[in-house]
């Protein structure tokens, strides 16, 4: 299933290793030095483990609880940093877009355009992203089941773009919590597109009284292991050298120095599931 992504993405390595792929980086681009440092360290880890890697970083955070929350360092400045990461580190890059007018602009700098979960039904946004020709990663809305994402896939593919990824990030559970329903992963895989588990956002606790989203980072390993066990093609993990000082989503990030140990465990699970013959419950290519 990674063959089409490999053809569409520059610098997408290790796609024949049989491993899951990884989308990882900071929540938001905070500066050039940090972005390059994170990308370089994660690339070294993934090269060692032969994990295909896409660097993740939002150029702007449009969905924040409070007006005084950090949203970014400037759109073009952040996008140029993402472009530099791609060129200097030699990895594909992904960033969020929020309105249809942003698609063509962001596509000049990155390899994958990501549709935030709250916007996954926005037809104009999906079509605009599709028409750039870039890979489009659509996050499943917290208010939808996996089966409903068929229509997002259709909107993109029927707009002439075959390169779609679907990402689960949990479902709303009451007013201030999320729960992961792992039935969504095989449901979305049945559409014939790569499916990713957004491990860190699935552990958010939104709508806190402080106006700052909480999280349960202690469960990152649990969610990641379960996702690989049920056949996720990729994982999405936000990571930062010091999550406590991160300018966005620090409450549910994985410390960068804990990432390699987690990836080592996950590659062993992937190997075991693949060797058992159960990695493709829908009969799809790995």
Description:
The chain has 286 residues and is an alpha/beta fold. 34% of the residues lie in helices and 17% in strands. It is built from 9 helices and 13 strands. It has helices at residues 3-8, 32-49, 75-90, 103-107, 123-131, 150-157, 184-189, 220-229, 259-276, and strands spanning 21-25, 53-56, 93-96, 112-115, 135-139, 164-168, 171-172, 178-179, 195-198, 204-205, 214-215, 234-240, 254-255. An 8-stranded parallel barrel has the order 1-2-3-4-5-6-9-12, surrounded by 5 helices. β3 (93-96), α4 and β4 (112-115) form a beta-alpha-beta unit. α2 (32-49) runs parallel beside α3 (75-90) and α2 packs parallel to α9 (259-276). The longest helix has 18 residues, at 32-49. It is globular.
Which terms summarize this structure?
about 290 residues; alpha/beta; eight-stranded parallel barrel; two-stranded antiparallel sheet; disordered C terminus; transferase; 3-deoxy-8-phosphooctulonate synthase
Strand order of the largest sheet: 1-2-3-4-5-6-9-12
How much of the sequence lies in strands comes to 15-25%
Please give the largest β-sheet.
Answer: 8 strands, parallel, barrel
What is the helix content?
Answer: 25-40%
Order of helices and strands: HEHEHEHEHEHEEEHEEEHEEH
Q: How many angstroms separate the termini?
A: 5 Å
Mean pLDDT: 91
Rg on CA atoms, Å: 17 Å
Number of helices, where a helix is a run of at least 4 consecutive DSSP H or I residues: 9
Helix and strand content put the structural class at alpha/beta
Shape: globular
Compute the number of strand runs: 13
> Unreliable stretches, pLDDT < 50, 5 or more residues?
281-286
GO molecular function: 3-deoxy-8-phosphooctulonate synthase activity
Pfam families: DAHP_synth_1 (PF00793)
Catalytic activity: D-arabinose 5-phosphate + phosphoenolpyruvate + H2O = 3-deoxy-alpha-D-manno-2-octulosonate-8-phosphate + phosphate
Subcellular location: Cytoplasm
